[in-house]
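Work Package 3 (structural annotation) set out to generate three-dimensional models for the target panel prioritized at the project kickoff. During this period the team completed the workflow that converts sequence records into discrete structure tokens, so that structures can be stored uniformly alongside our sequence database. As a representative example, we reproduce one entry of 155 residues exactly as it appears in the project archive.
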Amino acid sequence: MSEMTIIDGTLAVIGGGRMGEAIISGLLESGAIDPGSVIVAEPSPERRAVLVESYGIRCVATGQEAVLDSAIVVLAVKPQVMDSVVAGLAGSVGSAVVVSIAAGISCARIESLLPAGTVVVRVMPNTPAMVGQAMSVVSAGSEATDEQTRMVCTL
């Protein structure tokens, strides 16, 4: 791991679309995480192949597979599928910090779909995130500590 690495463990990204890829790209380019510590859940085999080829990361078809033993889970899916995606992960997230980038979905809503005590932090990036020039708003859920929230801010 590089000296800049700020994640101790695996980062699971649920959704390998444009925003998911922007997050992965930025973290890898900054040295915040090594490619071997990233796993993406993406249902499209073609998209998985592109991500593996471009970044040298692991990709799987399901979120349940991706979140096992992950330290951080980034929910990078469209708001309209968030409830079903989160409900499907509820039994697998363990002690991971769950980070949502979905517009219009509160921490409380995500917390209500996950086991009691799950740490949720909401990040609202803007479009320039895709070129590494974004400003993001961060909102901690009811279980997030100051240290966990700072770690998400650093990401």
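The helical segments are 18-30, 45-55, 63-67, 82-89, 107-113, 146-154.
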